[in-house]
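[job 4471] stage=fold_predict status=RUNNING
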Amino acid sequence: MQHLDGRSYQARFDTLAAAGEDVHGEASFVMGLAPADVLDAGCGTGRVAIELARRGVRVAGVDVDASMIAEARRLAPELDWAHADVAGLDLGRRFDVVLMAGNVPLFCHPEHRGALVASCARHLCAGGALVSGFQLGRGYGLEDYDAACRDAGLGLEARYSTWDGRAFAPGGDYAVSVHRRPSAREPGAPRSRHRTGASST
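[job 4471] inference complete, writing structure tokens
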């Protein structure tokens, strides 16, 4: 597990934002799912969770790195942060969306990736969506991830190549995936609610 300095990590995004870059693509994507509650799993310094809270979403953030969580708490002490390993997490509550942005599965030990996905799935309400974005070609591919989601009871709803909803094409180097837990009314039938209009694969 690679440990980073939270203050330095956050400074990179602050520099990009000061230069006029949009650093909230993940938050905008998640807002397209119209959630009331979001768990930011592997939240880092809280960049996405803080922006979602600013847009009116109830959020909780979890990260295994103490430096990251310390920075998140410094930036937004009023929000719900937890220093914990997502793979073994039990918050005792469920969310409309669980988000894994920023290559979270790649930072997880290979032996624990199945548990990571299963933990995220356990924190989803009926009809809730697991949203992840990670780079491909680094020893963990979409077949492995989709299999872990199926094992956790989630069905693939949509896949994109970027957080702005560009269509995914095989051979790409990045994927944003939406897997959904079946709703109580429609068992086994993932629903598409995302507003980008990009087609699923």
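[job 4471] summary: The CA atoms of residues 127 and 186 lie 9 Å apart.
[job 4471] exit 0
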